[in-house]
Q: What sequence folds into this?
């Protein structure tokens, strides 16, 4: 009889101990998840690829970049275009491609209109899947 009581008490304390550890682990996981959400909200970009259509410096570079962006947006309204400035160049980059193969596939479809375009590694916006 004593063995059964001791075994039952041992089993009870083990279960209580395990439940406390599980709760602590769940709290840690929740904390990590909240940190991950906060980081993604603060930095909403991921590594990926874009296609660079234009890169130029000078007094008229911004006007040219805006013109190229407008023409591209009229023709391809579903692909985002971005004008960036990295001293001393204005750049027009398009798309948010997760893989290089996706970028190359789209580059091949626009190669006639933009023969000087090339694929570049860049930080891209999150894509809706």
A:
């Amino acid at each position: 009889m004593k063995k059964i009581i001791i075994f039952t008490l041992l089993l009870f304390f083990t279960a209580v101990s395990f439940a406390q550890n599980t709760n602590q682990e769940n709290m840690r996981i929740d904390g990590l998840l909240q940190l991950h959400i906060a980081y993604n909200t603060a930095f909403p970009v991921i590594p990926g690829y874009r296609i660079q259509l234009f890169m130029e410096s000078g007094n008229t570079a911004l006007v040219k970049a805006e013109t190229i962006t407008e023409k591209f947006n009229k023709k391809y309204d579903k692909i985002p275009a971005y004008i960036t400035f990295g001293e001393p160049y204005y750049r027009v980059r398009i798309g948010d491609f997760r893989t290089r193969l996706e970028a190359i596939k789209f580059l091949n479809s626009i190669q006639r209109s933009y023969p000087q375009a090339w694929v570049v590694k860049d930080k891209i916006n999150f894509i809706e899947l």
